[in-house]
Design brief:
By secondary structure, the protein is of the alpha/beta class. It has a single domain, classed as 3-Layer(aba) Sandwich (Rossmann fold). The chain is 48% helix and 11% strand. It contains eleven helices and five strands. The radius of gyration is 22 Å and the shape is globular. It binds adenosine-5'-triphosphate and magnesium ion. The site of magnesium ion (MG) has 3 residues, from loops.
Length: 291
């Protein structure tokens, strides 16, 4: 079993993404992962999610960020597969609508924050507002009042995001964040696959090629953002994403460990409710005998 702690970003540390591998761990055995380790994690997630749902007090927010074609969608699909759909809610954040742009950037995010008992998955998130917005300098042409666009706007936003995630935690919503770290060459191969394979054509977007041109700027924005917003309670994990099966396994492992540590419990029945259940059992058992 892999120790996932080494993928965690230390709060405040200076990082270089080139020091984080995009390749899978050589020692990991695909057969073992797919036949044993991954199913075991999914089973664990399913049991723990049922308890989280029954407990109905806390929630888990899972954030996915990545460059295009890094495998967010497939990862969400595979890891969440064994989980009761009633308890999981996936939100994909796209380019904001004009209504969303009429509000502060956390407005649309908080509407999708998970309810108590739920696992909320964010496919992209409020982090776009310190990534794509920064790379393309989107705030200059936005509705933000000019006097709030100080040079330290990104540091201000990191602080706001940390405050927001702290607020969520203080209200029972715990957060785990994944950056799926793909190499530029692996992205090229996957984008080409979207072009060559007719069944994948729908996934291809010419804008992916435009974004790719800004690769280095994105890496810089991630390098700045990750340590500034990785906290003990809401950590970032930088996961190697060149092998899909390995990334999915790591995500399942981190989530299983997170839920184990949260240790949700079925609610205890009050004496009154227990007495009511006994009464109902008596009525139903008697009913059966009369038929
Ligand atoms: P894939 O990895 O398969 O390409 P995707 O998550 O990129 O999936 P798309 O529908 O291709 O999904 O793209 C969503 C786009 O919305 C991304 O380019 C992202 O940068 C953009 N986006 C999301 N949030 C914001 C935001 N707050 N401001 C500007 N653009 C945003
Ligand atoms: Mg895309």
């Amino acid at each position: 079993m892999i120790d996932t702690a080494r993928y965690k970003v230390k709060p405040g540390a200076k990082i270089r993404l080139q020091d984080y591998s995009t390749k899978r761990d050589e020692a990991a055995d695909r057969r073992e992962v797919e036949d044993c380790l991954m199913p075991a994690n999914i089973q664990k997630l399913s049991v723990l999610q049922e308890r989280l749902y029954a407990e109905n007090t806390r929630a888990l927010l899972v954030v996915f960020q990545a460059m295009d074609a890094a495998g967010k969608d497939g990862c969400i699909k595979h890891v969440m597969t064994g989980i009761n759909p009633q308890g999981v809610f996936v939100s994909s954040f796209k380019v904001p609508s004009s209504e969303e742009n009429d509000h502060d950037y956390l407005w649309r995010i908080h509407q999708k924050a998970p309810r108590r008992g739920e696992i909320g998955v964010f496919n992209r998130s409020h982090y776009e507002d310190v990534l794509v917005s920064r790379v393309h300098d989107l705030l200059q042409s936005s509705q933000m009042p000019k006097d709030r666009l100080r040079p330290d706007i990104w540091t201000t936003r990191y602080r706001q995001i940390c405050d927001y995630e702290k607020y969520l935690w203080e209200n029972g919503v715990e957060t785990v964040k994944f950056f799926l770290h793909i190499s530029k060459d692996e992205q090229r191969k996957r984008l080409l696959k979207r072009i060559y394979d007719p069944d994948k054509n729908w996934k291809f977007s010419a804008s992916d090629i435009q974004e790719r041109k800004h690769w280095d700027k994105y890496m810089q924005a991630y390098e700045d953002m990750l340590p500034a917003t990785s906290t003990a309670r809401s950590p970032w994990y930088v996961l190697p994403a060149d092998s899909k099966w390995f990334t999915r396994y790591l995500v399942s492992q981190v989530l299983a460990q997170k839920l184990e540590q949260m240790n949700p419990q079925f609610p205890e029945l009050s004496g009154e409710k227990r007495a009511k259940i006994d009464e109902c059992r008596f009525i139903l058992e008697k009913d059966g005998l009369e038929i």
